[in-house]
Amino acid sequence: MTKDIASFKAAGDKAVAESLEKIKKDDSGIFIAACGDAKAAGSGPLSGIPIAVSDNISTKDVETTCGSKILKGYVPPFSGKAVDDLTNAGAVIVGKTNMVEFGILGAVSTKGPVKNPLDNTRKGGPSGSAAAVAAGIVPAAVCSDVGGLLRVSASFCGTAAFKPSYGAVSRFGLIYYTGSLDQIGVTATTVSDVVTVMDVLSGNDNRDTTSLPDKMVYSGGKPLSGCKIGIPEEFLEGVSADVMKTFDEAVATFEKLGATCKKFSMNTAKYMQPVHDIIAAGESSAMLAKYDGTRFGPRAEADNWHEMIAKTRALFGPVVERRIMLGIHLLMAGQYNDYYMKSMQTRTLIIEEFESVFKEYDLLISPTAKDVAPELGGACGAGCDQEFSSYSTAIAGVDLAGLPAATVPCGFVGKLPAGLQIIGGYLKDADVIAAAEAFEKAADVKSPEAK
Amino acid sequence: MVYENPDGVMIGLEVHVQLNKANTKMFCSCTSDYTDSEANTCLCAGCLALPGTTPVLNEKSVDYAIRIGLALNAEIENETDFFMKSYFYPDLGNGYQVTQFDRPIVKNGSVVIEGEDGELKVRITRAHMEDDPGKMAHFGTIEKSTGSIIDFNRSGMPLVEIVTAPDMRSAKEARRFLDKLRSILEYLDVFDGTREGAMKADANISVNVFNGKRIEGTRVEVKNISSHKAVEKAINYEIMRQKDYLRKNKQLVQETRHYDEDRNVTISLRVKETADDYRYFPDFDLVPMIVGDRVEGIRAQMPELPDAKRERFVSQYGISDAHAKSLVTERAFADLFESVAAKVDQKSAASWVADVVKGELNYRDLPITAIKGDDIVTVIEMVTKKEISEESGVTVIRTLLDDGGKPADIVKAKGLAMVADDFIATAAKEAIAESPDAVADYKAGTEKALNFIVGKVMQKAKGKADARLAREMVLKELEKM
Amino acid sequence: MIQKDETKELAWVARIAVEDKDIPEFQDKINQKLDYYTVIADAPTDGVKKTVNPSRLNTVLRKDVVVPSMKVEDALKNAPDVYETSFKIPKIL
Known about the structure:
- The complex is a heterotrimer.
- Chain B contains 15 helices and 19 strands.
- By secondary structure, chain B is α+β, with helices and mostly antiparallel strands.
- In chain B, the strands form five sheets. Chain B has a nine-stranded mixed beta sheet with strand order 3-7-8-11-1-12-15-16-17.
- In chain B, helix 13 (436-443) runs antiparallel to helix 14 (448-460).
- By secondary structure, chain C is α+β, with helices and mostly antiparallel strands.
- Chain C has helices at 4-13, 23-37, 72-76; strands at residues 61-62, 82-83, 86-90.
- A two-stranded antiparallel ribbon of chain C has the order 2-3.
- At the A-C interface, helix 8, helix 9, helix 10 and helix 11 of A face helix 1, helix 2 and strand 3 of C.
C-alpha cells in the first residue's frame, strides 16, 4: 500500500491531486486538514511531491491546531522553517496530520484517534504521520518527535522514521510543548526517502538558538561490519513476547551483517521516564501559558480577564490540564528542588552515562515500542495520563540526551508491524542512518499479506 | 558634619533601565524604536507570543549589560543564564517573563554619590537582564474600567534591572543616586532617558528608629516611580506614613504599595495574603551564555565616566570643581564645554557654558542641540574683546535660543555694540556734574558713593558700556577735581 | 501528595476552570504521578550540574540588526477582540 518518493514522482502532475483527493476522503483520523494545491509545486529535490506535516508545525494561512480545541480557528501569519524548507525544495504541503493534543502522549485529539491503515481496529499511533505514509497518501511526512510521537507511530504502522540529533532541524514555527525534548523528524517508506527529506530540513536557522551551526550530513556512516552494538537490558523490560521475538530476529540479522551485539545494564535507565515526565510537565506549564484567549484562539465569555482566561483554558483536554497543573506544582518553591532540580541533575547523569556507553558501543538498539499497535478504545481510549510509560524507556532516554534515533520495521505480529529502534551517539546521525539502511535491506521485512 | 539619620531610614532601589539604544529588542529582530508608532505595529510573532516562536538573544543587550556592570565597578559573571518567571497578566503574552535568577550577569558593584554628609558609597547588589512586557491601557481607571487594551510594541524590549543595597538614608540621597545613575547610563550610550518608560524605579523603604531607639523596621516596597521628581516625593510620603503609623501605634505590614503621582500618596496593592510564587525555572529555549573575552573588549572601549571627567576638567582646564560638576552631569554638556574651551579662555568657557547656557536651556526646557558651540565661542570672544558687555552677551545667548540667528546680527539689530571710550569720558564728566552730593560723600571717604556715579554713567550708555572702564573714567575725572 | 483544596488552588494558579466534581479525579491522577516520580529520589545527584537543554551550544547571539515588523493586520487577524489597532480584553480587576 505504501508508495515511495520515486513512485509519486512517476505519477507526475497527478501526484499532488491524488494525494489531496485521498486526504479529503480520509475517515481514519489520519489528517486534521488538507491544504495546498498542485500548482504550488516548485522545483527542487522534492518537486511536485506531496508531503504531510504534523498539525503542530505552523503553516501560513492554514489553520494550525495541534489537535486542540484551544487553537480552533488559529491561522498562523507565518510558516515554520520546516514548511519553508519543504516548499523551497519543490514539495507541496498537502495536509496537516492528526496528533494527540499538543503531542502530549495519552492526550486526545479533537479529531479522535488515528486508525491504523494496516488494521482499522487498531491505533495508528499518537500522530497520523506514519499512517499517512502507510496508507500511501504521501511518500513522507514530517512530524515533531517528543515522547515517540513520530517513532512510536512509525513502529505501529511499519514505516521508517528518523529523529536527528537535537538542533539538526530548526524548531522555528514548531508549536512544541516541551522545547528541550522535542525535535522534528521524518517518516517515509524507506530509510533512503527519510534521508532525502531530512536533508532538505537540516541546516542552521538563526531564529532558533538551539539550531546547530553546521548542516547535518547523513551519508558516510560507519558500516555494520565490525560495529559494536549495545542492548541496554532495561530497554527490554515489559516488552511483549511477540515483539521480543521480532527483536531477537533483528539481533540475528545485525550479527549476520558482521556486527557484534551485547546486552548490558544502564544505571540511569530507571530514571529516564520519570525525569522525562517531570521535565515535560514543568516545561509544558510555561509553554502552554500563552493560550489565554487574549491575542489569538477562541475566547470564553466572562466580564473579568482572569475568569475569562480560566474558562478559555478549560478548552484544553483533561490530560493536558493535569499536565499543566502538575508542572506548576513541581515548579513551586516547596517542590522545586526535590523534583525539577533533581530531574535536571539526573538528566546530566543520563547524558553522561550515554556518553560513556558510546565510548564502548557504536550503536544501541531496542524495540521502538513495547508492543504492537493497541486496540482503538482500549485502556487509553478516552485519554490517559500514564500512556507514555507504556512505550519505551529508550524513547525517553533518547529525548533527554538529544540523541539521533531511527526506527525501522523488524517483523510482524499477525498483520501488525513491530519497530526496531537504532540509537546513535550525539551527532552520530550518519552512523544511525547507515545501520538503519543496511538493516532494512538485509531484513527485508514484509507483512504476512505481502508474502 | 555627620548625618544623624534620626529616623534610621533605609532605602534600597530597584531601577529598571530600558536598553533602548540597541536597535532591536532582546530576543527578536524587531525595532526598539516604537515611540511614535501606532499600537501593535512594531512587533513580530515572538513579541505577540504567538505559538511556535523561538527566542535568540541580542548581542547588543549583553554588551550593554556588561558595559553597565563595568561602569558600576561590579563583577561580571562569566557563565550566566536565563530563567522563566511565570504569572498571568494580559500584557505578558507568554505567561512568563524571561529574566535572570541566581546568576545575574552583574553583581557586587557600587556607585559613589554626594550624600547628606559627604561622599556616600551605594552598594549595587546585582543587575540582571530581562525583557519588558507589553503595555496595557484601561477604559477609565484600573479600578472602574469596563475593559482594557494592549499594545505589544514594548513587548520584548531589553531591560537591565539594577538592585541596590538599602544604603540610602533620605529621599534626597535616593534622588541623587538616580540622577547619578542616569548620568552614567547616558555616558555609556546604552539608554535614551528622554523616551517614555526608559527608567522606572521601585523603592524599598523602612524606618528603623522610633523615639530615639533602634527598632526592627518594616520594609515596604513602593512601585511605579517613573520620574525623578516623583522619587523624592514618593519616598518622603512613605517615610512620613511609616513614622505616623509608629506614632499612632498602628501595625505596619511588609507590603507593596503603588505611588500615585497625581495625589502624591502611596496606595496598598495587596489583594491576597499569599505571596506570589513565580515558579522560576531555567529557560530551556536558550543556552548558557559565556561572557569570556567579551568583557575585556568592552572594557577597552569604555567611555570616560562623569567622576573621571570631573577630575580631569579641574586639573586640565583649571576650572572650579563646582563648574566641573555641573558640566559633567550630561555628557553633551561636557562635550560642548570642551569644544568651546578649545577656542577661548577655559575659565570663561566653563562659566558661560555651565552658568549661562545651561541655565537658559533649562529655563526654556530646550535640548542642548538648540545652541551651537561656535556661537557660544563668538559671544565669549566679543565679550573678551569688549565689543559687547557681559550683560549683552547673555542677551545674545537668549536671543539665539528664542529667535535664532547669528550673534553678530543680533548685536547689530539690538544695538548692543559697546559705546566709544570718549562717550564714556563725556558721560563721566556729566555724571559728576549732576551728582554733587555723591562727589562730596566720596571725597569724605564714602566709597559706596562711587557706585552711584558709575551707575549714572552706565545709564547714559544704556548698558552698552564696560562697567570697569566706566569706573576708571569716573575715578580719573574725580582725581582731577 | 496534594490535597483537594491544593488541587483547586492549582487549577486557579494554572488559570484552568476545573469543575468541582472533577477535582477528586484531578487530585487522584496528579498524586499518581507524584507517587511515580519518587523513583528519582535515589539518583546520586549531589554536586551534579543541571542540564537544561541537550544542546551542547553556548553563547548563541544575534546581531543587532532590525528586521521589518509584521503587518498590523497580520498581528491582529487572530485576535478575539480588537479596539482600533489594540487587543481588547475584559476588565482586569
